[in-house]
Amino acid sequence: MLARLTVAAATAAVLLTARPSAVSAQGADPLPLPYTGNAEQVVAVVADSSSATTAVLTAWQRSGPSSDDWTVAYGPVKAFVGSDGVGQASETTSKTPAGVWTLTEAFGIQANDGTRLPYRQVGTSDWWVSDVKSPLYNTYYHCDPGTCPFNESAGEDLGEVGPAYDHAVVIDYNRTPVVPGAGSAFFLHVSNGRPTAGCVAIPADDLKAVMAWLDPVKHPVTDIGVR
């Protein structure tokens, strides 16, 4: 499945207007998936079917108090999802988890290039633990290869992944509480043009713009599901 710098809001605005199809517009359709929470930013990821390996990602900004008061902030963008589609995720499938999940931190092999989320630059001693027998399951951990207190073959060395993890946002699925075996290491990351092992992936320039737009003060979430 294949996380601190503060950026001025003006930077995000410039990035968001860099894509002609991404200009916010009053009167946009309401959110494409049901959402009843209090977030002011929603990244909707909508697939045509539960078995689809591609989806449409659109970033939405709350524009008023009503459940229909939303405008498009960025997108739509083609996204790749899990090779087993969208639905109930687990450690033994390659499904992207359906549901609403918070977006609270980001990471990347490259330096922070604009997000206001807490950001961690990672290398080959930075891991996401997928060892279902470890109490560290589905958490970040720093340790040198060969010294980690978990089964490294069941973990993901973030620094070894390559360009797909140049920048990424953690999708907070199965994090509070953590259920062993329910799935781990779900991220919004750079696309390599292929379906994922359960993550959501979009082109690098689009990810950069979305990450610059995300604002922890607005409690962003992703809403993933089937049309």
TrEMBL record:
Any matching Pfam family: YkuD
InterPro entries found in the cross-reference section: LD_TPept_cat_dom
Record keywords: Signal included?
yes
Keywords on record: Signal
Signal peptide segment = 1-25
L,D-TPase catalytic domain sequence ranges:
68-217
Q: Does the keyword Lyase apply?
A: no
What's this protein's name? Answer: L,D-transpeptidase
